[in-house]
Amino acid sequence: MVTKTFQELIEEVHEKGICQECGGCVSFCSSAAYGIIDFKEPNSPPQYIRKDQCLECGICYHICPQTHILDNELNATYGFVDYISMPIGNYKDIYSCQATDEEFLKYGTDGGVVNSIINYLIEKKLIDGAIVSKTNAPFSREANFADSKYDLIKASGAKLDVSPQLDEIQKFSTYTHSIQKLNHYKFKKLAVVGTPCQIYTIRCMQDLGVTPSEHIEISLGLFCYENFLFDKNQIKKFEEDFNISFENIRKLNIKEDLIFKLKDDGTGEKKINIPFNQLENYMRPACRACDDFTNLYADISFGGLGSPDKYTTVLTRTDKGEEIFSKVINDGVIRASNLDESKKNKMIELITQFSRSKIERKEKFMKTLQ
């Protein structure tokens, strides 16, 4: 069998416009220390830098979330059969929760649960730190290493005053390049917060035993319907379409719609909801080639969908995820709503609708590439 290399990734993934830019191929290249491949341009697929030095080992091709080489192995490990019988994946239980810490609840997304769990793991010395997403501006995030409560609060993007930055930023993207950060820190145990394509890549690395994936202690997955990408012309169009100024955006949140919290001189803050079907022109093109909404291979999955304001929906998936979640509940770090079977079923039904919508979107999109 001929080993497929980064050149095949370029032809089969990049040139089709379906590269998720997760960074797995760059970070876990066998010759990463020599800079064989890298991101040369922001919000664009990685490229060869020193093609003549490529070992052609095929790791990059195997771990790419668009090649699906290791799907059978991952599905067996994480108990996933198919979307027909498991539209939101294999999971142990569903919860609606919020942080008991007032700062995490105030500054965090939804119920502040993800940061609360990470902070607990750090304080208990179960991890050395975490790769999280830091908000720099509306629709602009970067990966950050956090090993304290201060770092987690700082990364939450609670106070957003971006007017001085608007002229400097050429492109805004909600997608965070988290995986590249893994090689930047020396650690023994790390938590990673990521989108479905990022967690998929990490699980592929772990399946292949690619260093340093063995040091990832827990994978915390975010629900992800789509990410957004704006250049300056799109920013102008977005502001005109929705009568929203980027300068006034204080916070973004995702539930059934994309929710904006805006500065308002009269009342201090106002809220605007925009349905996803009105945002297709601003979606990252590669997101159309993804069918995983609920983060199938995470230890625990999180999202706002299905829970009321200031609450986070939680799906525990693995034994490790269930164990950690039980600890934070029992130690009073987060509180869970009392959900009867009827409420759980309604949450699952709503999440299933979004999951099936994303699956159908991918099926339609992939037919256009044939």
Automatic annotation (TrEMBL):
Gene3D superfamilies: 3.30.70.20
A single GO molecular function term of this UniProt record: oxidoreductase activity, acting on CH or CH2 groups, with an iron-sulfur protein as acceptor
Signal peptide: none
InterPro entries named in the record: 4Fe4S_Fe-S-bd, 4Fe4S_Fe_S_CS, Co_F420_Hydgase/DH_bsu_N, FRHB/FDHB/HCAR-like, FrhB_FdhB_C
SUPFAM superfamilies xrefs: 4Fe-4S ferredoxins
4Fe-4S ferredoxin-type domain span: 10-39, 45-75
Database matches in PANTHER family: 7-HYDROXYMETHYL CHLOROPHYLL A REDUCTASE, CHLOROPLASTIC
Name of this protein: 4Fe-4S ferredoxin-type domain-containing protein
Organism: marine sediment metagenome
